[in-house]
Specification:
The protein is mainly α and 262 residues long. It contains eleven helices and five strands; from the N terminus they run ααααααβββαββαααα. β1 and β2 form a beta hairpin.
């Protein structure tokens, strides 16, 4: 931020110009928004619009229902359960991994996402088909938690605050003598999904996030209204959710090609 101000002669610039990727622009934009909103309280509405206008619009990568099944069937254990949550609840990967036990209300089929993108909380659906698998998973997690309490008296004792998907090993800091148990590293799930994609023979540039895109698209295909999908995804603007209408399995805008009528 200091270099940014010095570069512009300590004046507020009207726009930014640079041949960099969209992700890098997002990072720079976030830093600038923080600077002006929290430190200088400047007006960056125009700057935000300029940067976002330069970002290319990409259609999301979406699985078909059959492809989704193929990938999920080639996952096992916790990796499979996490992926099923991504697809079944429309979660981002880190939203799933940061779930606490208290955030998943199995009986009422509800998942609460806390501090999601934009630091917003939201509620989404919990798949009925995952009730038994998740309950069995949580039995194992609870045994792990009880073992922690026996071995580490200072471990967090409240069951509801435990990670739904904890790591198998606790971390230890030799310098501070502190220890704890974090949630699964996202790379574990990402690598497992990549392997499943290869085994399924799917050539799409898919990732864990494709499950979230597929969640929204498949709900639209089944006739679910877009406003509800917007709420489940946590989008602040329905225009963001509208992008899934362009990847429905019906051709662009739902139009039938004239060659199909010959």
């Amino acid at each position: 931020m200091k270099r940014f101000l010095c570069f512009h002669g300590m004046r507020h610039p009207l726009a930014t110009v640079g041949q960099v990727s969209a992700s890098r622009q997002n990072q720079a934009l976030s830093a600038l928004l923080f600077l002006y909103r929290q430190v200088l309280w400047g007006d960056v509405g125009n700057l935000e619009g300029v940067v976002r206008a330069r970002q290319p619009k990409r259609l999301p990568v979406v699985f078909t229902v059959a492809e989704t099944r193929e990938v999920l069937e080639r996952l096992q254990g916790t990796e499979q359960l996490v992926a099923q949550m991504l697809y079944g609840s429309g979660l981002r990967l880190m939203e799933a991994l940061r779930l606490r036990v208290q955030d998943v209300e199995i009986e009422v089929r509800q998942v609460t996402v806390r501090s999601g993108k934009g630091d917003k909380d939201r509620v989404t659906v919990f798949p009925a088909s995952l009730m038994e698998p998740l309950q069995n998973h949580l039995l194992v997690v609870r045994q792990m938690h009880r073992a922690d309490l026996r071995e580490y008296p200072n471990a967090a004792s409240e069951w509801g605050l435990q990670w739904v998907f904890p790591q198998s090993h606790r971390w230890h800091d030799e310098k501070t003598k502190t220890q704890g148990r974090h949630h699964i590293d996202p790379s574990v799930i990402q690598k497992a999904v990549k392997r499943a994609l290869l085994r399924a023979g799917i050539s799409k540039p898919a990732s864990c996030h494709t499950f979230r895109h597929s969640f929204a698209t498949h709900l639209l295909e089944r006739g679910q209204d877009i406003r509800t999908i917007q709420e489940l995804l946590g989008h602040s603007d329905v225009k963001t959710t509208m992008i899934y209408t362009h990847v429905l399995n019906r051709g662009p805008c739902g139009v039938m090609s004239p060659v199909d009528l010959l």
